[in-house]
Amino acid sequence: MELITLSGPRLILRPWRAADLEPLFAINGDPDSMRYFPAAMTRAESDAWAERLQTHFEAHGWGFWAVEERGGAPFVGVVGLMHIPWEAPFTPAVEIGWRISPDCRQRGFATEAARLALDFAFGPAGLREIVAFTVPANAASRRVMERLGMRRTGIFDHPRLPEGHALRRHLLYRISAPS
Q1: Domain assignment of residue 127, yes or no
Q2: Is there a contact between 147 and 74 (Cβ–Cβ < 8 Å)?
Q3: Is residue 136 part of a domain?
Q4: What is the tens place of the pLDDT at every residue in 112-147?
Q5: How far apart are CA 175 and CA 120, in angstroms?
Q6: Rounded CA gap, 76 and 89, in Å?
Q7: 145 touches 132 (CB < 8 A)
Q8: Backbone angles phi, psi at 118, to 5 degrees
Q9: How many domains in the chain?
Q10: pLDDT, tens digit (0-9, with 9 covering 90-100), for 42-89
Q11: CA 155 to CA 35: how far, in whole Å?
Q12: Are the beta carbons of 76 and 59 closer than 8 angstroms?
């Protein structure tokens, strides 16, 4: 299966390279970058997550792409689409998500890359709906979701986090393919 690359005015969403593991860990291992996740990752956990992303990419031809800046940083983060591997009232579903390096934030990269991913989702991939979710405190991600035209449609407790966990409650956003 051919692995898809997407291109925008400033960004390229491309398949993974071995050289991406170190800058990915710089994001995943950073407590501030991971403040809305249960914990920062160890290098082994970050590498295992990258392997899961790569496996999804190879199985479907799309997934979470490595994002690079045209003529700039070879790795600014990850943005993409993934089948949700756990059960919730809204699954089965495909989610869109992003993690951008701290030194590349506040430049619109998450929104631009996510738009490329949504165009692919509703075009060549033929998907009908995409979801996204985050904890209520994550205002930056909520703003990206809203810029993408996603609408908040509910609240749920993340099934992979225990009762009473501070990050268990999530806001659910959705967007449907244009008619």
Answers
A1: yes
A2: no
A3: yes
A4: 999 999 999 999 999 999 999 999 999 999 999 999
A5: 14
A6: 33
A7: yes
A8: -65, -40
A9: 1
A10: 999 999 999 999 999 989 989 999 999 999 889 999 999 999 999 999
A11: 20
A12: no
Host domain of residue 12 = 6-176
The DSSP 8-state label assigned to residue 39 in this structure reads S
What is the residue whose two structure tokens read 């099934």? 159
CATH number at residue 127: 3.40.630.30
Determine how many CB atoms are found less than 10 A away from the CB of residue 41.
Answer: 20
3-state secondary structure of 26: helix
- Spatial CA neighbour of 1 closest among 82, 80, 58, 66: 58
What would the two tokens of residue 6 be?
A: 């997407």
d(C-alpha 81, C-alpha 60), whole Å: 10
Task: Give the CA-trace dihedral at 45, 132, 57, 75, to 10 degrees.
Answer: -70
3-state secondary structure 128-144: CEEEEEECCCCHHHHHH
Q: What is the pTM of this model?
A: 0.94
Q: What residue has token string 């400033």?
A: 10
**Domain annotation covers residue 1:** no
In a domain, 126, yes or no: yes
